[in-house]
Write a structure and sequence with these properties.
By secondary structure, this protein is of the alpha/beta class. 44% of the residues lie in helices and 22% in strands. The protein has helices spanning 2-10, 24-29, 32-43, 56-59, 63-76, 91-97, 107-110, 117-132, 145-153; strands at residues 18-21, 50-55, 79-85, 102-105, 136-139, 158-159, 168-174, 177-183. The protein starts with a helix and ends with a strand.
Amino acid sequence: MLRQACAAAVAMPRELTISVNLSAYWFSRGELVRLIRSVLDETGLAPNRLILELTERTIITHTDSARRSMEFLRSLGIRFALDDFGTSYSSLNYLRKLPFDTIKLDRSFVTDLGSEPQAEAVAGAIINLGHALGMKVCAEGVESVQQMMFLTQGECDLAQGYLLGQPEWVPMHTTGRRKTAWAS
């Protein structure tokens, strides 16, 4: 899927980036750096157009190897996003120790924006924390104008969700066979 996503991104305008979720499998095998370099070489995608998304669960058992791999890949220009922020174990520790560029505010914190003061307080605190650490913040699951207004007023950097566009199937061609991938 990484190869397909990177190949599709090469055909997109140069100002667009592609985000790909990584599984713990690649950290456990110790082949992440080799895989990423191979895919970038094969597809010709510039490293600064690739954002790798990791969940806390992905890195919890491989923190040291994740840090080393992330630091090397980041030196190539690849960026990292911490996905589903706040829904797992010790998020703040990972923000301090690992070189993330973006925090993805989980949809569970976005759902009640505009209608629940506690949700607004948590979302606002996460946005402020991300900015204080020099990171961008991306809100997931934005589905209403009310949510978007709160996020805009709170200076959230990025948003994704049905309000902005529905996910679609994007045709991709690899090794002569037609394949598709889910993109949003």
